[in-house]
């Protein structure tokens, strides 16, 4: 006897989008527009947009992505659990790290913003390429 297993008709398939951007400051608004269009109904959209803004600015200001001809990539994954965003840059000397409040006199708030708004964040990579990942559940986390 052959048994069939059925999946619920309402199951939402995971989605994945990727776009490459030039490493120029004027590209930041295109990063936000890209995500806003894809995630228009996502409950934490404002948080996602602010985090992507910070990660894209960091890629341009602190990595080779901001040099002439530089590029960075934004990946957005969405499924029933929520959204995961990735920003991949062309690497550089330093490593992404949270700064202490004493170090924040002139900037450096980007990863603190990411840490405050994303449920989790992490990074992987080398001096040649790094990816920062931030997660957002479908339900508001805060």
TrEMBL record:
Chain ranges of the Histidine kinase/HSP90-like ATPase domain: 25-135
Among Pfam families, the record links this protein to: HATPase_c_2 (PF13581)
Entry keyword annotation includes RNA-binding: no
Q: Where are the transmembrane segments?
A: none
Ordered alphabetically, the record's keywords are:
ATP-binding, Kinase, Nucleotide-binding, Serine/threonine-protein kinase, Transferase
Entry's Gene Ontology molecular function annotations? ATP binding
Record-linked PANTHER family? ANTI-SIGMA-F FACTOR RSBW, ANTI-SIGMA-F FACTOR RSBW-RELATED
**Annotated protein name in UniProt:** ATP-binding protein
Task: Please tell me the species this chain comes from.
Answer: Actinomadura chokoriensis
């Amino acid at each position: 006897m052959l048994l069939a297993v059925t999946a619920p008709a309402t199951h939402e398939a995971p989605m994945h989008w990727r776009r490459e951007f030039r490493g120029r400051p004027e590209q930041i608004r295109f990063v936000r527009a890209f995500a806003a269009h894809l995630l228009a109904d996502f409950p934490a959209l404002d948080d996602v947009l602010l985090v992507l803004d910070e990660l894209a600015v960091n890629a341009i200001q602190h990595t080779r992505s901001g040099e002439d001809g530089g590029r960075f990539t934004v990946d957005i994954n969405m499924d029933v659990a929520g959204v995961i965003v990735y920003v991949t840059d062309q690497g550089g000397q330093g490593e992404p790290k949270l700064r202490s409040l004493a170090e924040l006199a002139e900037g450096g708030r980007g990863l603190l913003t990411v840490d405050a708004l994303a449920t989790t964040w992490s990074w992987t990579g080398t001096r040649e390429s790094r990816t920062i990942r931030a997660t957002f559940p479908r339900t508001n986390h805060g």
